[in-house]
Amino acid sequence: MSFAWLSPWMVAAGALALAASLYLLHRLRVRYRTVRVVTSMFWRQAVEESRARVLVKRFRHPWTYALLLGLTLLLWLAAAGPHLGAGGSRRAVFILDGSAAALEGDLFESSVRALKDAAARSPRARTRVLWSGARTRTLLMEGEDLALLESRLSGLTPELCPPTVERTLETLLQERGGALGLDIEIFGVAPIRKDRAALLPEGVALWRSDGVPRGANRGITALGVREAASGAWDRIDAQFEAATAGGAVLRPEELTVTLEGKPLEGWSALAGPAGLRVSLHDLAANGDLLEVKIAASDVWPADDQAAVRLPRRDRIRVAVGARVAPVVAAVLRADPGVVLTEDSPQVFVRSSSESGRAALPEMVLSEDAEGAAFEVGSPADEEAERALRSAFEELGLDEIDGTELADAAGRAMEVRLRTAPVRFLRIWNELLSSRYNFVLGRAFPAFVARGIRWLASIPPIEPSLGAGRILRDPSAEIAAPKRPRLAAIGGALRVPRAGVWAAKDESPQISSLLSREASVGLSESEAAELKPLPSGAAFDPAPWLALAALALLCVEWQLLRRERIP
Fold first, then answer.
1. How many domains does the chain contain in total?
2. Which neighbouring-strand residues pair with 338?
3. Is 383 within the bounds of a domain?
4. Average pLDDT in the 178-202 region?
């Protein structure tokens, strides 16, 4: 037997306290009142009765004590919330899947009903209920009243996000430190990978309530953008995938691709065993909305469309000083992403002998060949190590043959990071001379082009804004309508759910579901097979205990009427 509200030790301690209290009360001296009588015939009997409850005398009414003790113990056990056959001393955690996978038919409603039934059978002192949607929430703590679960479930609906049960499991086990004796039951069809299930600590069992399996379905499972393969700065390539499951068939003519609401023609689909893959090349990077739809709906329409707003790639305005080496100016003029202008420049390229411009990122060609060959200036709010590593990769310094340059210069080529109010990039002007082959290699134009883009703080292209994906930009911020703004912490920001978001520059962005796990699930070789948690013969004996207490009360009343007990 287990108890919902108290531990077995507390129940035992309470029972002992009740027995001791009744014993003491049963032996307390009764305070008598004075009554005048006309005869002393019953004086001896009155004396005997007056000594019945003297503390130091014998216990005279054990049946009365037994009845009262049985009555109070029955009521005490009923109040403790007893359960029989409810899993022994193991703790239980119920996880309700609130992801987009629960949107099919009445799956979510049936999962909620199964959750309520399981929570009613499980001991409240050792049962916890979690919601696994865009974020993990606790619906019911251990020991809380079951009525709170009903109120907290009201109004909850699945969210347009990929299945997050695996992430909830990781968080749960980190909180408990892999505690032994734990049954985790999942309510829903969110898949669990075999390799994840194999990592569960010993003593932790994973179960699943009966759920509706995924039927024939088709969905957009991937949609992303990338730099144009043609190398054009103002162009973007895009790609999307449409997958099928459960015997569903998808033909290319059932797909509709639009750009800013207008049909996009001239694309072709590559058929594969799991669906279709489509590549779109050289789309204009002007912020248009790219939408993909499956014309005919199926059993689960939540994944039948996806959209992404293409990045805007305006040319970077660069001002060049009069004393800048001609080879640098030539590279800048050849860069399709740069326009040389003195009208509100974003970046200034100058020689160290020229005056700088306040609050403007600069590429400085240093006449002084002392110190580091490459010096990178970054604001103090950026972590030094992360900023240096990021700059080293973004500037293409990893592609420069530092050994050859060091041999020609007779000393090491050092890269140094320095804190500055605005970004700057300083290099030896001597490296541009004929003494070195730096300007003759392919790394030089890439270095200049990447340096200009880094100085202009051009954010990286996000490959995909799918729900649940982590953004690449460590300074990214997003906000949904009527929701607080989310900012990256520790260089990672996850898009919680599908919908319309506002970026840091207030430009509207769209995130789509794009979840293969939600649309088609996992294959049999990937998914772990989870069985329903055995319910056993659990029932609530509290009503029967209350009836037994009532029966004892009736017995005591009859004995009292017949003067069998005092």
1. 4
2. 316
3. yes
4. 85
